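User: I've been trying to design a sequence by hand for this structure and keep getting stuck. Would you show me what you'd pick, starting by listing the structure so we're on the same page?

Assistant: Good idea, let's start from the same input. This is the structure you sent:
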């Protein structure tokens, strides 16, 4: 009887795992072709962690961010129009793409926020605008955050969401 219970637990675990993967796959497939968008990408120049200290503040760790803008269309290029970098208060810090540039089919353009640049804060973000001559598969825009100092590693990713224009 114990073996049957174990088998059923394994089967149910696999079923739920497969359902989760198929749901994620369907969400990825739902992206419709577009001639352009504005995308919001959350990024972090630092991350708070731990407990509040005697002064009522938590510890923080600085993070670098690699912004990856990937043209997922296999046949057509896209134009990257701008990548505006904002701090936690919503203040524009920099335009990281001062002139439009072309990303070829399946090409990638990268932006980098250095580890020692804490100006964005924990609520920093990019607004990335792109367009194309005809509808294309929308780009995949991600932020890879990292700090690998002192024998410890903090690494995580964020993904953009489209904004209503």
């Amino acid at each position: 009887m114990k073996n049957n219970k174990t088998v059923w637990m394994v089967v149910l675990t696999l079923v739920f795992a497969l359902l989760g993967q198929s749901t994620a796959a369907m969400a990825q497939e739902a992206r419709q072709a577009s001639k352009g968008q504005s995308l919001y990408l959350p990024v972090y120049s630092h991350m708070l962690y731990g407990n509040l200290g005697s002064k009522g503040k938590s510890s923080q760790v600085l993070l670098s961010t690699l912004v990856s803008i990937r043209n997922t269309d296999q046949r057509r290029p896209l134009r990257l129009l701008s990548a505006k970098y904002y701090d936690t208060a919503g203040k524009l810090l920099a335009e990281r793409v001062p002139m439009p540039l072309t990303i070829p089919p399946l090409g990638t353009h990268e932006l980098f926020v250095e580890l020692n640049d804490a100006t964005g804060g924990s609520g920093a973000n990019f607004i990335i605008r792109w367009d194309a001559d005809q509808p294309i598969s929308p780009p995949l825009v991600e932020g890879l955050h990292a700090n690998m100092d002192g024998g410890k590693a903090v690494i995580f990713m964020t993904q953009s969401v489209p904004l209503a224009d």
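That's my pick for every position. To get oriented when you compare it with your attempt: The domain at 32-162 is CATH 2.60.290 (Hypothetical Protein Tm1070; Chain: A). The chain has two domains: 1-30, 32-162.
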